[in-house]
Design goal:
The complex is a heterodimer. Chain A contains ten helices and eight strands. In chain A, the strands form three sheets. Chain A has a four-stranded antiparallel sheet. In chain A, strands 1-2 form a two-stranded antiparallel ribbon. By secondary structure, chain A is of the alpha+beta class. By secondary structure, chain B is an alpha+beta fold. Classes of the chains: A alpha+beta, B alpha+beta. The interface between A and B is large, with 69 and 62 residues. Strand 6 of chain A pairs antiparallel with strand 4 of chain B, so a sheet runs across the interface.
Chain lengths: ~300, ~90
């Protein structure tokens, strides 16, 4: 379906001509520009036959699939000229990029979620067969003795993250924790799992003096028993907004500032935005966006709209 | 900065009309520009860090911000155009 749309951009005339068998994406751009501009004009611009033949595009890839299925390459018709008495309202077209760093950690648990997970773990204790200890730990080995000692400390239960709840004793009915008990919280569960390792150190003969508290964190022989990284990084504590290590459970977006320095209030707010730049001739949004991500590398070049 | 642009089609747009709007000239074929339309494309950063030292776009600062922090930095109309293409989490 050939559709011709002339646009004046800064004195230069541009033709966006889409023939019937052209690639889909350029057609999407033309139609998007056409329709978006027509919606912003005052008064009708697109005549009825054009509006019926054009399809509304929204920001979904399903739109391009729809064009592929409904488009008939063999029919050719010229849309009647859309004469408009009102002068054209012309806009500069910019291409911007929303550069995002996806979250690196799962979000923290809601209290209901952590309660639910503890309930599920204790329910599992009631429903499964007892832990098959002789399969994993052989009698007479130090690992067996060590595990037995730890299990005794836990109240005879093999699972490490349900507290002292044993489903095979007389107190098996008491499977709910009291309100205000922080046992089910994510941090507490991790501490309990790690305390398991500290007990291991004690059972192997480490003395109490070797466990020191430095800076609020329990350390063992100078090394942090919490082998692993923290959810709160250095950048979180410092509030370093330029770092990509900050807020690991959130999506971060790149925001840039263009304009004079030292502005305040509303004018300062107008300087911030996603990186964007103007489209030159025969450039698509994607090319311009790609250039912005490599802006330290090369200056602007005119690129062909190729697919 | 190792980035990946997800798709060619935009995920949102922002229309900025110049204030005051320029006078239309009915005689000449060259009409003054009424404003700017920005179409945003989605990209992901895989590795690296933004470097604005040799930026030709006149960028003098950058920040990596979560969604609610962006609201505090940008203007009201820009935010209302942009907020629905950003993810909450």
């Amino acid at each position: 379906m050939p559709c011709q749309y002339d646009r004046l951009v800064q004195g230069k005339q541009q033709h966006f001509t889409v023939s019937s068998d052209k690639v889909l994406r350029s057609e999407v751009y033309v139609l998007t520009f056409c329709l978006l501009e027509s919606y912003t004009r005052t008064g009708p611009f697109v005549c009825l036959s054009c509006r019926l033949s054009s399809r509304i595009r929204n920001y979904a890839s399903a739109a391009t699939a729809q064009v592929a299925t409904e488009h008939d390459a063999t029919t050719q018709f010229t849309s009647p000229p859309c004469a408009s008495p009102a002068p054209q309202r012309l806009y500069t077209i910019n291409g911007g990029i929303v550069l995002s760093r996806p979250p690196l950690l799962t979000p923290p648990l809601h209290p209901f979620e952590s309660s639910y997970f503890l309930y599920q773990r204790r329910l599992n204790e009631r429903l499964v067969l007892p832990f098959s200890q002789y399969f994993y730990y052989k009698r007479g080995t130090p690992a067996f003795e060590d595990w037995r000692a730890k299990r005794r400390a836990r109240g005879g239960v093999a699972t490490r993250d349900v507290g002292t709840y044993n489903a095979y004793t007389d107190t098996a009915w008491n499977d709910e924790i009291l309100v205000g008990d922080k046992m089910n919280e994510q941090g507490e569960v991790v501490k309990r799992l790690l305390a398991d390792e500290s007990r291991e150190a004690r059972s192997l003969g480490a003395r109490e003096e070797q466990l020191t508290e430095e800076g609020g964190e329990v350390k063992q022989n100078g090394k942090d028993p919490m082998a692993g990284l923290r959810r709160q990084t250095e950048a979180d504590r410092a509030g370093n907004v330029k770092s990509l290590e900050r807020k690991l459970d959130r999506t971060l977006y790149l925001l840039v500032r263009r304009g004079e320095k030292g502005l305040k209030g509303e004018r300062e707010r107008s300087c911030w935005g996603f990186p964007c730049s103007e489209l030159m001739e025969k450039e698509g949004i994607r090319e311009v966006s790609h250039l912005q991500t490599s802006f330290p590398l090369r200056p602007r070049v005119l690129t062909m709209l190729t697919y | 900065m190792n980035t990946w642009i997800v798709a060619s089609h935009p995920i949102g747009h922002f229309v900025y009309n110049f204030t005051p709007p320029p006078e239309p000239q009915p005689d000449s074929p060259m009409q003054p520009l009424v404003g700017e339309k920005t179409f945003f494309v989605k990209g992901r950063i895989m590795a690296g860090q933004a470097n604005i030292a040799e930026s030709f776009l006149g960028i003098n600062d950058f920040k990596w911000l979560a969604k609610e922090e962006i609201k505090e930095h940008v203007g009201v109309q820009y935010w209302s155009a942009v907020k629905n293409m950003l993810v909450e989490q």
